[in-house]
Amino acid sequence: MRFDVITLFPELIEQYCSFSIMSRALKNNVIELNTVNPRDFTVDKHRHVDDTPYGGGVGMVLMCEPFFKAYESIEKMPDAQAIMLTPQGKKFDHGMSVELSKKSQLILLCGHYEGFDERIRQSLDVLEVSIGDFVLTGGELPSLCLIDSISRNIEGALGKIESADYDSFSNGLLEYPQYTRPVEYRGMRVPDILLSGHHGEIEKWRLKQQLLRTHQRRPDLFERFSKRADLTKLEKKVLDEVLGEI
Ligand code: ADE
């Protein structure tokens, strides 16, 4: 998977990706990262990338030319997908993360402070993506959210112990509670079941905790899970148990 990020602040992207799991994934060639700065494609003396909006109004608008040129400078793979980060886009979630992780190349367009000239949206066949109903000052953080989350789905990015299979959302439910040493801390004990060594019982307990937690915090996800046609025997059994208790 190759990420090409069009950004006025390439260092923000590169710095984040130089730590922890992202840096290891880059080193192991599981992912590739390339940044392109539209400012490098300006022709005027002051290297402007924005201008005042036609029709008046406050703020500035990101100009076509530097963004088109930056986009055109990127070598495209046949299944490349361009993504524009904007609060007006489709809401990003685990499902979209998994789908996008099947691509060989994602080209991420980050705005900053101001909006894009509409013709950038129109011509570049971009998928507009939002990371939530709030406004950030730029597309770099949303881009990093996508890069981080999508990379986790790619084979080899996570070590065995960090496996994404056990994450929240991997089975459509929130995560179960986790504990580590010591057994007792400030009067709070680790549940006995986790110390029992009964792997089958532990698996069942964890699933039940996932269901209870999801029912309490995300009734929408609980509802969706309970209607799934592909539940395993264990999932059906524990779901029935939980439905009898809530
Ligand atoms: N740019 C600014 N705010 C954003 C958001 N919520 N999602 C994606 N891109 C953005």
Strand order of the largest sheet: 2-1-6-5-8
Contiguous runs where pLDDT drops below 50 for at least 5 residues: none
The global form is: elongated
**How confident is the prediction overall: mean pLDDT?**
95
How is the biggest beta sheet arranged? Answer: 5 strands, parallel
SS summary, helix count? 9
Radius of gyration: 23 Å
Q: Report how far the terminal alpha carbons are from each other.
A: 44 Å
What share of the residues lie within helices? 25-40%
Secondary-structure element pattern, one letter each: EHHEEEHEHEEHEHEEHHH
Strand content bin: 15-25%
User: What structural class do helix, strand and pairing data support?
Assistant: alpha/beta
List keywords for this structure.
246 residues, alpha/beta, five-stranded parallel beta sheet, three-stranded mixed beta sheet, 9 helices, 37% helix, elongated, binds adenine
What does this protein look like?
This protein is an alpha/beta fold and 246 residues long. 37% of the residues lie in helices and 17% in strands. The chain is built from nine helices and ten strands. The strands form three sheets. Strands 2-1-6-5-8 form a five-stranded parallel β-sheet, sandwiched between helices. Strands 3-4-7 form a three-stranded mixed β-sheet. A two-stranded antiparallel ribbon has the order 9-10. Helix 7 (199-217) packs across helix 8 and helix 7 (199-217) packs across helix 9. It is elongated, with a radius of gyration of 23 Å. Adenine binds at residues 85-87, 130-132, 134-136, 139, 142.
